[in-house]
């Protein structure tokens, strides 16, 4: 698959100002003489190109003293995703990110992380035309082995499919450039289109990049609550973001991370001396901006992380699929796999330890409550979007099932 440059029009001259079209009230800017861009809600900066997740709490405190500059040609973005049975979030991903992601590399194994054989369920559906309107940007990579070491090492079990995705997927892409971006995602993590668009269109930010994602549990109607610690006291946030290391340029992947995309994910790896030497050379001799950057914060998220957002039946599948040395491993506990029990946890917002309680989301109309595509199709995704007691869900089968 050959990558092509994006020749879309993202900016427009309005008088003496150059404005990001999606983030600007163009008519309003013209009415004030075209000397500046009048930003729409959720966008900031001189050209209205900085989305709120990026603005808070990074550029708000630095602007305009930043190195940000518009690119002449947008970066290409590759989104690598490992999957098991997360179809609803996969559908949301393609609808949300298809316009701004150049290639989705989809990696699937016919073994669970526990080592049990299973079908290539995504491949089977794709061959039958599933998401056919998006398949021109899909690159599918299969893994048909399960390393023996994964039976005892959770680290290997967690890393191997991601490693396979990068080492076998990226060489299939032609025309790659070192400033192209690789975005690594678990199937239940979805960055916002606005954030990916910003990363495509601008230079001058550092890498690697983490996303602060809204952390939902069982569905978008529960949020992970913040722990009672110093961080909660300082931030005042009741909810706990999910911070996931996700993004690096292909240059960093090649010159620092040994082309192993899993190393984007782990902070431990940066401590190794050999990596430190490569990183220092990448930064000092080649002039790259190297500093971990977290996009987003509570209330101004960079996307969504919907954990355990399944039906009770599929939650059992997730429990059984977990790696062997997960602690605790719910798949080893028959009482936790009872469907009635799981349904009660979803309804009450309580974790499987029967101790941790999640925060209810009372306002389902709040900004960025859930991915836009899901909200546009409530009948299809109502069981993920709304609490079981919601009017749309009463006396109805699950949707999606």
TrEMBL record:
InterPro entries: EGF, Glyco_trans_17
Annotated protein name in UniProt: EGF-like domain-containing protein
UniProt xrefs under Pfam families: Glyco_transf_17 (PF04724)
Molecular function GO terms recorded: beta-1,4-mannosylglycoprotein 4-beta-N-acetylglucosaminyltransferase activity
GO CC term, one of those recorded: membrane
GO biological process: N-acetylglucosamine metabolic process
PANTHER family: BETA-1,4-MANNOSYL-GLYCOPROTEIN 4-BETA-N-ACETYLGLUCOSAMINYLTRANSFERASE, BETA-1,4-MANNOSYL-GLYCOPROTEIN BETA-1,4-N-ACETYLGLUCOSAMINYL-TRANSFERASE
Residue intervals passing through the bilayer: none
Lineage: Eukaryota, Metazoa, Ecdysozoa, Arthropoda, Crustacea
EGF-like domain boundaries: 37-48
């Amino acid at each position: 698959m050959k990558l092509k440059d994006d020749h879309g029009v993202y900016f427009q001259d309005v008088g003496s100002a150059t404005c990001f079209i999606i983030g600007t009230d163009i008519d309003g800017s013209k009415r004030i003489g075209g000397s500046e861009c009048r930003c729409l809600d959720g966008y900031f900066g001189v050209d209205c190109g900085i989305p709120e997740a990026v603005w808070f709490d990074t550029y708000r405190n630095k602007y305009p003293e930043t190195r940000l500059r518009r690119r002449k040609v947008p970066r290409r973005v590759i989104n690598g995703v490992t999957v098991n049975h997360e179809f609803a979030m996969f559908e949301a991903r393609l609808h949300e990110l298809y316009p701004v992601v150049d290639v989705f590399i989809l990696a699937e194994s016919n073994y669970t992380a526990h080592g049990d054989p299973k079908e290539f369920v995504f491949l089977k559906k794709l061959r039958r035309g599933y998401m056919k309107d998006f398949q021109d940007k899909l690159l599918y990579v299969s893994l048909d082995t399960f390393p023996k070491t994964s039976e005892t090492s959770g680290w290997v079990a967690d890393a191997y499919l991601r490693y396979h995705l990068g080492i076998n997927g990226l060489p299939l892409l032609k025309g790659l450039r070192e400033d192209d971006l690789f975005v690594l995602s678990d199937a239940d993590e979805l960055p916002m289109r606005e954030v990916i668009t910003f990363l495509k269109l601008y230079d001058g930010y550092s890498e690697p990049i983490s996303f602060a994602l809204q952390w939902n549990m069982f569905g978008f109607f529960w949020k992970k609550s913040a722990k009672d610690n110093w961080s909660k006291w300082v931030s005042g946030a009741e909810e706990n973001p999910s911070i996931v290391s996700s993004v690096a340029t292909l240059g960093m992947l090649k010159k620092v991370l040994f082309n192993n995309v899993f190393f984007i994910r782990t902070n431990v790896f940066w401590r190794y001396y050999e990596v430190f030497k490569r990183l220092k050379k990448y930064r000092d001799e080649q002039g790259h901006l190297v500093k971990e950057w977290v996009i987003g914060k509570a209330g101004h998220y960079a996307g969504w992380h919907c954990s355990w957002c399944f039906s009770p039946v599929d939650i059992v599948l997730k429990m059984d699929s977990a790696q062997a040395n997960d602690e605790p491993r719910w798949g080893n506990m028959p009482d936790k796999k009872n469907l009635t029990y799981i349904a009660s946890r979803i309804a009450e917002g309580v974790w499987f330890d029967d101790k941790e309680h999640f925060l209810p989301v009372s306002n389902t109309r709040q900004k960025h409550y859930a991915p836009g595509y899901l909200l546009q199709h409530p009948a299809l995704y109502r069981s993920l979007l709304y609490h079981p007691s919601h009017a749309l869900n009463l006396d109805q089968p699950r949707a999606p099932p």
